[in-house]
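Reagents: none. Just compute today. Permease.
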Amino acid sequence: MAEKIDEAERAARAAHLKERIYLTFAALAVVITLSTHGHVSAGEAATTLIVTVMGTLLAVFTADLISHLVVHERLFTPPELRHALASSFGALSTVVLPFVFLGFAGLDAWSTDAALRASAIALLASLIVIGWIAVRRMPLTWFQRLVALGAEAALGLAVIGLQVLAHG
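Predicted 3D structure written out:
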């Protein structure tokens, strides 16, 4: 029975991390795209980012609902619904800093370009932290953890590179 609990806890942890990764990559793509467009206001950037964030969260929640229907042939139970909502919308914590930075830009404490650049750095750092959370309890050597985190960072940089290439 204890093994089942561990498996359920791992599955719940994986779901939380997965949603955070999806949302962080979506926000990173938007931030990079906005920074390549030039002369976007802080308000326009924040509006675009919030629309993307909410759209992504709703898409992830919808995917969770549909996959649950297919696997279990029923709707969520109330505890399952609470878990799905917490997993999806709990990911909002990963995009707090970009909104703070855009708020500074909106108050003219920073330029919008600086806020977008800081947002990209914060989101990439967030991906690394999420990766660390994912691997910290795994029975891996420090070198294997470093490789896993390096691969995730490289993927984040690849997203930035592709966005710059597409909009540069």
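Residues 13-167 form one domain.
Action item: order primers for follow-up constructs.
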